[in-house]
Amino acid sequence: MALLKGTLDVLVLKTLSWTPMHAFEITTWLEERSAGRLLVEDAALLQALHRMEERKLLAAEWGVTKNGRRARYYRLTTTGRAHLRAESERLVDHFDALTTVLASKKA
Amino acid sequence: MIRFLLRPGVRRVFRLPLRTSAAIQSDADAELESLIASRVEHLIARGMSPSDARDEALRRLGPSLEETRLQLHESAEHRERRMGIHEHVENLVQDIRYAARGLARRPAFTAVAVATLAIGIGATTAIFSAVNALILRPLPYAKPDELMKLTLVTPTVGDKKGRDDVVWSYPKFRLFRDAQQSFSEISAYAGQPFVLTSGDVERVTGEFVGATYLRTLGLRPIIGRDFDPAIDALTKAPMEVLIGTTLWERRFNADRSVIGRTLGVDRQLYTIIGVAPRGFKGLTGQAELFLPVAASNAEQLAEAQSYWLEVVARRKANVSPARVEAEMIALGKRMSEVYPDNFAGRPWGAHSILLDEARVAPVVKRSLLILFGAVGFVLLIACVNVANLQLGRASGRRREIAVRMAIGAGRSRVVRLLITESVLLAFLGGLVALIVAWIGAHALSTVSPEITARVGRSTIGAVDFALIRLDWTAMAFTFAVALSIGVLFGLAPALGATRSTLSNTLKHGDADGHAGVLSAFTGRSLLVVVEVALALVLLAGSGLMIRSLTKMLAIDTGFDPAHVLTLRLTVPEGGMARDSLPGFYTQLVQRLRAVPGVTNASLGSCPPLSGGCNRTLLTFPGQPDPDFAHRPLTGVNWASPDYFATLHIPLKRGRMITDADHFGGPKVVLINEAGARTLWPNENPVGKRVKIGQGGFDGGDGAEIVGVVGDTRQFVDSAERTDVFLPYAQSPRAGMFVFVRSTRDVASLGPEVRSAIHEVAPSFAIYDMQTMSARAAGATAQARFSAVLLALFAVTALSLAAIGIYGVMSLAVAARTREIGIRIALGADQRRVQRLVVSQGVTLVAVGAAIGIVGALLCTRVLQTLLYDLKPSDPVTYGGAAGTHGNDGELAPCASCGARRSGCRVEERLIYGGTVERWNGGTRC
């Protein structure tokens, strides 16, 4: 299903919270981790990455992949890490509320 | 340059910022390609065929490849732009903080630099406000470029030049008004003092105006109505008056129901029909009420040769100025035909100029512009000083700059850093300058119209000095100046400092290689020369003005104003029969003499140094009357017998007028020495007879000259002229000045004099009470004002120049400390080394002085018009100015010696005023 609006950013930040990755790694990681449920369009991902770089949540640098290919690596900045913490807390709480409501058995 | 040629890949590797659109886009494309390629690789590794993998990869993009690329181009460019701005802002904040810290670390330098700049910029802004208000700002009337001031032109007769600024008589104006075709609106006006006679007796200034006055200027009354244009054609005008806003507020408390109420003016009742717009004081600048012209003296209105009106007119939009001029000339001829006059048949002409050009007396305009120039000089010197100091600073930071550039700061980045300090300094200076400017503008705005009105012909009121204020234009001007100064004078040093190669600087440290010091020194030398030249010009200019002023103040004015009180008295119209006036005069003078402490009391028509009053022409009985052009011109004054004694004007020949010269008796006059000399060069004028064109002394046998009195000046800088004095008793007039000399302090005499006059003349208006000294001082006020200002500027400039030279020399010497030390160590004679350094300083000053003198000679041509009795190249002044700078020349070596402390142990010397001999004897090494 399509990603809910506004969640892509948090997901990307989470993806990058361990190690810098380039765009393909990010989309692959998300796909694998969600067992194929989260499929991100490349165009959308790259634009999101540009946006987040502008907002200083990410920092970008050209590097070389293990296959010897040049790729643009993104890493989390301090600001980004703080944003990730705040946003994921908020989202988790939000979805908890949703699931509670949707799972209720009685009126 | 190289940067543009680098391929994006190389830029990426070296982490150079992406600047151009093309670079950004190719960067985004590369990222996309990389992503697609990675996915293809991944899929092939899973077993897909290459073409299928490629299709799948493209499918996973979302939109088409082209679409994706465009979207990414856009998002990448947006990103770079925003991040670029952030970076700039961050850098700027960083730079400002750094500059501020640097300035704070050296409070003395900062304070001096800010103060210097503040004074320079502040003064410039204040004068600019004046120039703006008085000259630049458009007149506050509708379509001001259509408004013209019309004057009459008298023809040139023989060697007597005609004038083109003559005022009008009413019949001539009426003829012109009815015949003209070039103007859509036209109106006459004339300033006039009035006395308000209803309620509080008060003296005000007003104007007689044509009915279309306000209309011509494009103004409307704020309440009530304007005059009806038709009343101009009537011989008897309705008793209507327009009042000004100040009068409205003062006497009627801004009551809106004032329309229809009556106001007594000169004992006649007029109905108030309207209130003029706020701030409008007529074109004479002082009018508080406006009466129709027809309400003035009927005789004067009918007399074609009585010239008293000024005319303003609005040119029709589709009429060219050339056509206007042509019509003026034609109508001038016609007026001469209809009203034949006194110029042997030669026609008068008429002339028009833009109201804008007539707005300020030319002398005021010139003075302002000169002041502007002078202030500009001071500002320049201030900037040069600050630039000097910046240069010094920059070379002291060479190492720091080299290191910065070594670790990757671009040259522009470093230059920006250096400029920030100058700009910050200039900005601070600009802020303080606002205060200085405010004070200056305020001071200028208090220069009263009386001063300017006395200097030339009437000024146009709309550009009253009171309009000078610090407005947004001026403030914008200030900051523009401050900013340009900061950038300009910071740029050169900054560029210079970042030019040298890194290795050079790192090897030689602050002392730098020979080439570096030389170039910096040349720059500074140039600045010193410029500074000296500028200061010299300013000094010479103000020196000339001051000498001019002293000369002006030193001339013998011909009278003694000390201990004399003056006031004006007017017999109201209808208040006393003409026959009774002589008796009244005697009574008045007697009563005044009875006031305790009063030694003399008298009446006069025109105090000395007041710009002159009436003038008329003389003829001689027994000879045929020549045409008007060949009749001698004379000032005509009225006086009571004690007038000359009151003002200590000496009697040179013959006798004084006395009470025996009574009304109806044989007519007598006094003449001044200049007149006697001009008219009867080697004879005794006593006993001769003249006919005088005014006062009833022009009939029959004229009057007998009974005495010759000393000359008195009317203008401070005017040439001598003929003056005659008629006895009040024999030629009674309603207006007079009262002069009272006393042994007591005259200022305190006022109330007693007033009550004494009230006893004799209960309802006559007394006004304009001043001591004679104050009155006389007014005549020189403007010149004194300018001279004082210029002197201030000169002193400031001189001190700034001195400080600048000292600063440059000491920095230069400090930079050569090593060299000097080496020379001495190698055995050079100490004196020779000193002389080497000193001579450079002296050379600089000498060159600057030479240029300065040339510049001063050129510039002071301009001052010629304002100078009294001096030729611009007055040797005394130039000698003085050069001499002062000679002192500067001695300053230079002393600066060098004062700074040479590291090479030898030199005792601290008095820097200023020292001589070569003194420090020669004092050094030890």
Description:
The complex is a heterodimer of chains A (107) and B (925). In chain A, strand 2 and strand 3 form a beta hairpin. The longest helix of chain A has 26 residues, at 78-103. Chain A is α+β, with helices and mostly antiparallel strands and 107 residues long. Helix content of chain A is 55%, strand content 15%. The relative contact order of chain A is 0.17. Chain A has a three-stranded antiparallel beta sheet. Chain A contains four helices and three strands, in the order H-E-H-H-E-E-H. By secondary structure, chain B is an alpha+beta fold. Chain B has 27 helices and 23 strands. In chain B, strands 1, 2, 3, 4, 5, 6, 7, 8, 9 and 10 form a ten-stranded mixed beta sheet that branches. A six-stranded mixed β-barrel of chain B has the order 13-14-19-16-18-17. In chain B, a hairpin with a 2-residue loop joins strand 6 (262-265) and strand 7. In chain B, helix 3 crosses helix 4 (50-59), helix 3 packs across helix 5 and helix 12 runs parallel beside helix 23. The A-B interface holds A 22-24, 28, 41-44, 46-47, 50-51, 53-54, 56, 61-62, 65, 67, 69-72 and B 9, 12-13, 15, 30-32, 34-39, 41-42, 60-63, 67-68, 71-72, 75-76, 78-79, 82-83, 86.
Tally of DSSP β-strands of chain A: 3
Instruction: Give the overall shape of chain A.
Output: elongated
Helix percent of chain B reads: 40-55%
Largest sheet of chain B: 10 strands, mixed
Q: Report the total helices of chain A.
A: 4
Query: Which pair of chains forms the biggest interface, and how many residues does each contribute?
Result: A-B, 23 and 30 residues
According to DSSP, the number of beta strands of chain B is: 23
Q: From the alpha-carbon coordinates, what is the Rg of chain B to the nearest angstrom?
A: 39 Å
Tell me the overall shape of chain B.
elongated
